[in-house]
Amino acid sequence: MLISYMEGFLLGMGAAVPLGPINILIMNEAVKKYKNGVLIGFGAMSADITYLFLIIFGLIAFFNQPYILNFLSLFGGVFLIYLAYAIFKNRDAKFATPKEKVKESSYARLYIKGYALTFINPYTVGFWLSVSGYVAGKGLDPYITLFGMLSAILLWITLMPFLVHKTKHKLSQNVSHYISVASALILFGFGAVMLIKLIG
User: What predicted TM-score, i.e. pTM, was given to this entire model?
Assistant: First the structure.
């Protein structure tokens, strides 16, 4: 049981920690507000849970079809480029946003943004397919392993934005500008690679 949990935890960290579109988005939002980064993370985690249910009910194979993966690549690439544009457009936004300017509905949009970006990423499908094969191949307890994975992801999406938000006072507005530009370029790069692979 402990081995299953630890292997799941390490798999979860392996999925959550690498610098990818979601982590770029979480960091970019956490600089503005801690809750924003967490909501993006929860959206992403919810998409992972959706794929977990698809695995449990044997429906994940449906998403492993070339035309489905191509659609996800197309939609995902365009969505990433749109996010890159939105971040670049707001690159000079101030750190602190007055509470009266923050609409509660924007929280739902942040959650949906995290969910959509993870769900439409074809690499997410590949990751969960490989995880299900790994768990079955090693004879691990699937539920304990999944619990370990979700524990790691939950820890990351709450701790990482907290650290980013708490250290934002060390960043000047000028540095924030360059971070936003770099984030936009990285997201644009991810989106462009998705579309190029689809065309190629």
Answer: 0.80
Cα angle at 140 between 13 and 1, to 5 degrees? 85
Nearest one of 48, 25, 46, 47 to 37, comparing CA atoms? 25
Cα 121 to Cα 29: distance, rounded to the nearest angstrom: 20
**Residue 193 Cα distances to 96, 136, 187, 188, angstroms:** 33, 32, 10, 9
* CA neighbours closer than 13 Å in the CB half-sphere of residue 37: 24
Could you give the CA distance from residue 170 to residue 89 in angstroms, rounded to a whole number? 23
Distance from chain centroid for Cα 112: 11
What residues make up the domain containing 101? Answer: 2-70+94-171
**Tell me: the pLDDT tens digits for 156-180?**
999 999 999 998 877 676 777 887 8
Count CB atoms within 10 A of the CB of residue 63.
19
Domain count for the chain, please give it.
Answer: 1
DSSP conformational letter for 1: -
| CB-based contact 25:19 (threshold 8 Å) | no
The two tokens of residue 8 are 């799941």
Tokens of 189: 């790069």
